[in-house]
Amino acid sequence: xxxxxxxxxxxxxxxxxxxxxxxxxxxxxxxxxxxxxxxxxxxxxxxxxxxxxxxxxxxxxxxxxxxxxxxxxxxxxxxxxxxxxxxxxxxxxxxxxxxxxxxxxxxxxxxxxxxxxxxxxxxxxxxxxxxxxxxxxxxxxxxxxxxxxxxxxxxxxxxxxxxxxxxxxxxxxxxxxxxxxxxxxxxxxxxxxxxxxxxxxxxxxxxxxxxxxxxxxxxxxxxxxxxxxxxxxxxxxxxxxxxxxxxxxxxxxxxxxxxxxxxxxxxxxxxxxxxxxxxxxxxxxxxxxxxxxxxxxxxxxxxxxxxxxxxxxxxxxxxxxxxxxxxxxxxxxxxxxxxxxxxxxxxxxxxxxxxxxxxxxxxxxxxxxxxxxxxxxxxxxxxxxxxxxxxxxxxxxxxxxxxxxxxxx
Length: 409
Known about the structure:
Rossmann fold
């Protein structure tokens, strides 16, 4: 097998969640000795230098393309209306990828929606990895403008096109299957390189208030809705935990929620757009994240588990994470259960300590690079097996290949 990746952003461990997952996948493929070629878009020359210094193994070939150097053209701009991220890929990128895909052993792995365009010529050997589904995430928004409606339509058309897709949770795979019942879908665990997540057991906080709240990107509709839900819970949380302080950190926190947070708690700590999120996790005494209609895995919950932060959430928050209530976190189905979960954790420090250690152990098991990459190897093997089976059927006299049936594995 010759593995070809398309990454619409640099696979570096100090960028966002998608970039960190790409870094994990590429690093593990190299470590396993897989013959890998990565086609990567970047904007900052510093990122290109970092990649060249980081990925030097002889079994890895980097193909770097600067998105800023892509000249604007009417055709490429127009096709982005129909295919997310298509403007990133110029003729040089497409020619290099198409030449590489002439190898009959090549398998093409596309990371996220924005990598979809380069795979359209190679659908029989391409898998698209989905981290989220806009059609699910926007259910928490009451009104959709024309732009959002078009993006929802564009996403549905994309999903109907691909034969092979992976999703970071079984629920996300099911959502996709409702849009494209004929696709072969594979739930594949989201990975974390835990070397970047130092575990710190909860400690006493007599010298400061108890920071209770959320960390996330509030520009994302599910996180924004979860934060507004948390603000509604705040008066009840404050009643049972008198020393609590409302704590919101992440992209857009002040701009989107600052006024509402201070209205709920004049002492609220609201910080946005921080260069390093880890120190703020270590300030957080309890994360309360109870989303609604959120697709994909909740990376911030995984990160809280990895870093030793106790978590109170609901069923949507643990989608794709095999937790047990009161062993790894508190899982509530009602507002009263969520508030009680916060009280229980703050009043039982030994329970909190054991719970965070169990959560860290869980993440080490399910998110380990070796475990995640093993799942991907199984996906590639099933794709090759399906391709061989379809090819054999085409050569059988009087037999036509049957349509691709749904196979959620």
